[in-house]
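[SOLVED] Need 3D model of a two-part complex

Original post:
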Amino acid sequence: MAEPIITFKNVSKTYILYKNDQARFKALFIKPRNPKTNKALNNVSFEIYRGESVGIVGNNGAGKSTLLKMITGVAFPDEGDIIVNGKVAALLELTAGFSLEMTGRENIYLKGYILGLEDNYIKEIEEKIIDFAQLGDYIDQPVRTYSSGMKMRLGFAINVNIEPDVLVVDEALSVGDASFKRKCKDKIKDIMQKGTTVLYVSHNADSVKEICPRAIYLKKGTIIHDGPTAETLEIYNADKQSQKSNKK
Amino acid sequence: MFTSILKEHKGFGKQILLLAKNELIKTYKGAVIGPFWAVVKPAFTVFVYWFAFSVGIKALKAVNVHLNGMEYEAFSFDFFTFMFIGIIPWFFIQDSIVQGAKTLRINRQFITKVKFPVSTILTYTGLSRLFVHLFLVIIMYAYVIFYRVSHGMMPVSWYDLQFFFYCPLLFFFFLALSWSTAPMSAFSKDFESLIVSVMSGIFWLSGIMYDSYSFTGGLKWAMLFNPINFFANGYRNTFLYNRGFWVYKTELVIFAAELIGVTLLGIYNYNRLRKKLPDVL
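Solution:
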């Protein structure tokens, strides 16, 4: 097969839990001895190829968010290597990351520059984004004045229209009213058909089955299973059941 | 490691200017006289100090400056003029240190939510402060011209051009300082509080209201190691003393060493803490 678009090689990430603020202050100057830690990811390795759609399932605290943050370049691993070849668009926290005093239009450029796009290219997709976000004249108003729905629409429109190589989608995403939601779903499907790599995070087994042929099951920072979705979900559900019966 | 900060700035210049502009708008919008607050606050501070020292205490009408060391005769300058020229860089320094340390915490949405060239946050907020500083310098320069004419001097001097030596250094020095202080403050709020609480003390320990050259022995040396003195004296070299920046070589060399030290330390601290920032903010 071709070169993988996302490679995780023995990636580990540990959050240090400081006892209190003094400990945190001290850690600035001296390395803390035997601190309490939370291993969010433990020796995680996988490869994802261009055009694949991969679902990531797991309970709360399994390390899904940490994993996605690393793919989008927000967080960094303590150990191991992550290679991402291409533009990543994340449909995670759409209302965050805007410069509030800038207009919607200026924010499109800001986002574009962060992703390393050229002026000409941004100009090309600018109209598409504005059109998709249905902001009308608001596009030249500061983002500060937007309603949360408008911010979300703009965030979504920017992310899907930059023609990403990797699209990260959280199922819990909410993007305003029903008609816009439908539009978003159609757009995501459209992107997938174009051969974009999609990472889909969900608690909901059915929606994963619908979209992704391959799935990864994360539990407490470790990959329990990585394979065809049906197989992974079987293990995931069985695990869930046994946990439930244990509790009883 | 040395190029990581440079790399983050590459190709981002236009955005930095735009973000700096917006930072200014954010600071002053919503107030009736808006940008004039940038002038009102410093003007009031200058007035208060002048009133306290020249009118209240009545002791300070003139300052004697020993430009060539204690063994030579002193030059006498009007206190208000002396203080005014020295306090203008101080306003910038104070804002740079205090705001610079808080910047990353305030702009955390750019660190924890999206991928962003984090060190440019320090640059654009610093630039927005520089705009305010330049505005104040223009007002100060107008006063300097008035002062010179009223004392029978030429209104402008070649030495004025030294501003373009001191001002970029001023900007860069405190930018490099924030590479250390901003990530550390983001990490620990105690560090931020520490910085804020020592600031007013630092003002009185620096030669803003008095002449930092007017000491002897160990204290004279101690004063040379305070970079704030370098800038206060530098602005006075430029606008008041008619003295070249190269004249006092010891001061220049000590500052250059500090500049290199602060820059290296800043690069080290920024790289050390950059990847941990999203976890702690």
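Edit: The mean pLDDT of chain B is 86.
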